[in-house]
Specification:
mainly alpha, cell membrane, transmembrane, transmembrane helix, Virul_fac_BrkB
Length: 317
């Protein structure tokens, strides 16, 4: 009996030292799910204000250009699944033409919505920083609040630029690939290759955005290898979540009791799951950074011990 209990204790010890288990325990212990819920709440209102400002700006800049409008709607539909109603029977909160028409003559209201967008977006990026630093057990950033807000604006601008550039590259790559397949008479594999290219591009976009959040937004110093792996984990998780978003979000629309507010509820769930992915990747970075620090200390002590042994040998000789 004692031997069985000893083996059980050894098995439990090995289980709780597994890296995924340590990450999950740290995430729960430091209130990761609660912080993810708060981030989802802030992100919802930031996206709502961004919709009004973005569609109003796009409607003014590319008025009459249906191709650019389609690109804009496609990019938004890929970034926030379930938000745009494309008229395919898949549901959605808003129709593109309704948004373009509603925001075409707002005038000074655009200024108000822009201010709301900035406040809510800065609140979201600030909340993301607090959540990430909380998982690392770090306090607030020691920086002038005004300078910190300016830095956050730069981070938001960088995130937007990355999204625009990758979207443009995706459109160019898909059009080039379609033209090449037509020339080579490979129409049978067109859809597979196009979907594969789009999937790889979304992984690249999500990984870049995760790297920006982990490095710039969080203001946390971590080894580059840890940052790189954490960004890849968050990027892959976000892409997989987006890929299966239709099934995840569609389950709410199939419930007649939730139909009246199914899309809004589904968007909250989507933002919550997305926030969980980012914070779980951050928890992994926290564990990996702590392990790297322990390994560095052991290596330092080992070198120091070797130097002491050499010095003693020299003295004796």
């Amino acid at each position: 009996m004692a031997l069985l209990l000893a083996r059980l204790n050894v098995g439990l010890f090995r289980f709780f030292t597994l890296e995924p288990v340590r990450v999950l325990l740290l995430y729960v212990e430091r209130r990761g799910p609660l912080m993810a819920a708060g981030l989802a709440y802030r992100l919802f209102f930031a996206i709502a204000a961004l919709l009004v400002v973005g569609f109003a700006t796009v409607g003014i800049v590319i008025a009459g250009n249906e191709a650019l409008r389609t690109i804009t709607v496609d990019a938004l539909d890929q970034s926030v699944p379930g938000l745009i109603d494309r008229g395919r029977g898949e549901g959605g909160l808003l129709r593109p033409q309704t948004l373009f028409d509603a925001t075409s003559g707002l005038g000074w209201a655009i200024v108000v919505f822009t201010a709301v967008m900035l406040v809510t977006s800065l609140g979201w990026i600030g909340g993301m920083r607090q959540a990430m630093r909380g998982l690392f057990a770090l306090g607030p950033v020691a920086m002038n609040p005004v300078l910190l807000r300016i830095k956050d604006l730069g981070t938001l601008a960088l995130l937007g630029a990355v999204m625009l550039v990758t979207t443009a590259l995706g459109v160019i790559a898909n059009n080039t690939l379609d033209a090449l397949l037509v020339v080579l008479d490979l129409g049978a594999v067109t859809q597979v290759l196009t979907q594969g290219a789009g999937f790889l591009l979304m992984i690249l976009l999500d990984t870049l955005m995760a790297a920006i959040l982990l490095r710039s937004a969080s203001a946390i110093e971590m080894p580059r290898a840890v940052l790189r792996r954490g960004a890849i984990i968050a990027g892959l998780g976000s892409t997989v979540l987006r890929t299966f978003s239709a099934q995840i979000l569609g389950s709410f629309g199939n419930n007649p009791l939730l139909f009246s507010f199914a899309v809004i509820l589904a968007l909250f769930v989507w933002f919550f799951l997305l926030s969980q992915v980012y914070l779980l990747a951050t928890a992994w970075c926290a564990i990996a950074t702590a392990d790297a620090e322990v390994d560095a200390q052991r290596e330092h002590h080992a070198k120091a011990g070797t130097l002491r042994q050499r010095s003693r040998r020299r003295v004796r000789s």
